[in-house]
Amino acid sequence: MKTNHKRLIKKIILGIVVFGGIGFLHILNKNNGTESHKDSLLSAKLQEIDGKIWQELGKLNITKNTLTKKSNQLQRNYLQEISVRPTRRRVKESTRQLIYETLREFDLNPEDIHVVSEEMPSPASSTEVALYINEKTFCKHSTPAQRFIIAHEIQHILNGDSLHDFVLDRVIDEKPLNPRMANKVLNTYSQLVELRADLQAATTNSEWAQRYLIATQETLEQVGDNSSSTHPKNSERLNLARTIVNQMNKQTIL
Predict the structure, then answer these.
(1) pLDDT digits (tens, 9 = 90+) for 37-89
(2) Tens digit of pLDDT for each residue in 33-43?
């Protein structure tokens, strides 16, 4: 019988996200000295979230070294499981072009990422090799919001979040854990991973911060405050977006 934490990980892998491997420290290093992380408060927030992620996983005796080692061992299995069938539906051309432009802006080759139309509750989700788009929901958003939604998913790809979810599924199965405790930890872990992706995309520069603000405003207006245990509340994301925009504006003035 599947335990609750197993079903939770499956849900995360499928990308049931409100908007929504290269490690987090690589992202910080890549942007070091650019507009994206000049502000020490925003940089500190990113580091705080990353620390909390490992603090939560530590409650299950999962360390960064454990996850890295298992990721290397299971990467081939993961890629086999997430392979995209050729028969999957494609998105319309205008959506595809917007996605390709955003991928290039974050130094990803569009030829490496499948873009697939998918019916799901959220406007977008991702694995290491694919972006899944619910165009009915996605196209309700303005162009700036759409671009941020994709940028958020790109951070998941860069961070290897989908691979890590796959690996966590296997690691947790090997441990004699209380399912309720595992669920609580993984819910918090998932929320932190979502906030990390928001922050990484939004702090790229002031334009991306504005797109984050627009995306969170539109999402809150369209669906209200989400009740998902695996994702931050939309009101929390809106407050974070306002904070980032304010910090970016101060940064520009200075």
Answers:
(1) 445 767 888 899 999 999 999 999 999 999 999 999 999 999 999 888 766 78
(2) 444 444 576 78
* Domain ranges for the chain: 4-253
Calpha distance 95→65 (Å, rounded): 39
- Tell me, letter by letter, the H, E, C secondary structure of the chain: CCCHHHHHHHHHHHCCCCCCCCCHHHHHHHHCCCHHHCCHHHHHHHHHHHHHHHHHHHCCCCCHHHHHHHHHHHHHHHHHHCCCCCCCCCCCHHHHHHHHHHHHHCCCCHHHCEEEECCCCCCEEECCCEEEECHHHHCCCCHHHHHHHHHHHHHHHHHCHHHHHHHHHHHHHCCCCCHHHHHHHHHHHHHHHHHHHHHHHHCCCHHHHHHHHHHHHHHHHHHCCCCCCCCCCHHHHHHHHHHHHHHHHHHHHC
| Model pTM score | 0.83
Half-sphere exposure at residue 189, Cβ-oriented, CA atoms within 13 angstroms: 24
Residue type (1 letter), 107: D
CA distances to 25, 133, 135, 179 from 90, in Å? 34, 9, 10, 38
